[in-house]
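Q: Here's a chain of 298 amino acids. Please give me its 3D structure as C-alpha cells.
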Amino acid sequence: MKFLILFLLTGLVACSSNKDKATDAPAKVTNESFKKEKPLSDREMRDFYSANVKALSPALQDETVDRYTPEEMSQVSDPADPLLTMAVMCSKGEFDPAFGIASKSFNKYQKVPGYWNQVANCHLNMGNSRKALLFYNKALEVSPDYVPTLNNIGVMYSRQGQDQKALVAFERANKNAKFSKTPRYNLAKLYLTYGLADEALPIFKALLSDSPQDVDLQNSVASAHFLMSNYQEAAQNYVKIPAEQLYSAEVGLNFALTLNKLGKQPEAIKVFNAVKEPSAPELKRYYSIVKAQLGERK
C-alpha cells in the first residue's frame, strides 16, 4: 500500500502570495538602494493574483504557480507584479534574476509579508531550507498569521520528511485562512498520504465543487474513494478525467486497479496497456506492482 499511496497524488503546493548559482541575500546594497521608494503596507497588497491562463488544474491557480505545466507557466507574466515575476522565475530555476528583482524591490516591499515569503520560496526551490526558514520567519515577523507563509513552512517540513510539523503548520494556516484553498488542499493531501481518506475526501470534494474540471482534484477524489474501498465511486470519478491524463501512469495505474477490484479484469488490463511504462524509478516500480496484481504479461 505504501507505493499505492505514494502515487495517488502530486506533491504539496507552496503559496506564491501572490541549476543556476544565485545570490544569498534578497537585497544587495548599491547606489540604487538609497533612492528610497515609499514602502507599501501589507494592507495595500493582495495575497492572490489573476492569471489569464486556461490551466489543466485551475483550482489553485490564483494562489500558486506550482501547479502550472511548463507550457502554462510561459503564459503567466505581469511586469507590474514583481512578486509574481519572482515566483515564476524561481519555479523555472532562474534564481539570479529573481534575486535581482528582490533587491530592486526591497525598499518598496520590505513591509509586505508576501515579499519575504517569496524570497523564502526561492531559497526553498534551491534546496536551502535553512535560509528559507529564516525568510519565512521574517514574513511572520511582519504578519504573524500570514497564511501563505504558514502553508509554505508546512511544505518545507514535508519535503524534509517531518510530516508531524507539516501537519501543525497546515492546520494553523487553515485555521487562519478565510478564503485560501491551498492550505486545505495540502492538509487533505497529507491526510491521504497516511491513509486518512475519510478525513481527506470532504475537503477534496468541497474544492472540486468549485473547480469541477480540475484534473488533480478529480484524481484526488477518486483516490480517496479507492482507499476507502468505494471502488464504484472511484471508477465514476476516474472516467470523468480526460483520456490524455487518465492514461498517465500517475492516474491510469490506479484506475486499472480500481477496475480490477470491481471484477472487470479485461477492462483493467486494457487501461493498463494504454499506460506508457514510466521511467522514474519509484513510479516504474509501482508500474511493476500493478502489472503483477493484474497478472498481465505485457
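Q: Can you summarize the key feature?
A: The chain has a mean pLDDT of 81.
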